Amino acid sequence: MDQDKDKDKDELRNDILVAALKLFSEKGYFNTSLTEIAEASGVKTSAGIYKHFKNKQEIASALYLWIIDRLSVSIDDIRRRSRKSSEQLREIVDLWFRLTDEAPEIMRFLLVLNISEFLPDEKPLMETPPFVKILKILQNGIKSNEIKAIDAPRAYCHFFGIIENTLKQVLTGTLKKKADFYEADAWLSAWMTIVKK
Asked: What Cα–Cα distance (Å) separates residue 6 from each residue in 16, 17, 54?
């Protein structure tokens, strides 16, 4: 029996995206073939992928937009739950460290791969909704005197530079323990770079 026919179109499309995410995060975009994505997703041949996506770049673009959308929803939830910028930033850091341990493929896709190399027409990460929302959190923290008076993009660089670098080191194996082992220290170091003293 043909596995392609057993699954509905949305389920098969999702399987292709999940397989591509795993392969892109392990091997890189350019080192992953459509044949490998087909095999990993259970599609009989790479021709079966063309029923769902025009090419590998369209798969990567769909992944990028899906991840950005999920992050945006998560950040909206965080912003609704917490009032202070420090609390919101703490929850975002918790989310990122948790994703690094539980869904490393997503974080490798965002933090390790150079997305602009294979998705030059997509918005840069910092212009996407979740990151615009993070900049707003920082701006609100600056306005409320919780964060020192620097512009939000610089505050992002100081704070998330530490967070992102720590996570990249975990994702690439330079730091050997799980991400949550490093979270408290990374949070404290990052917060100290922007907190108004």
From this structure: 15, 18, 22
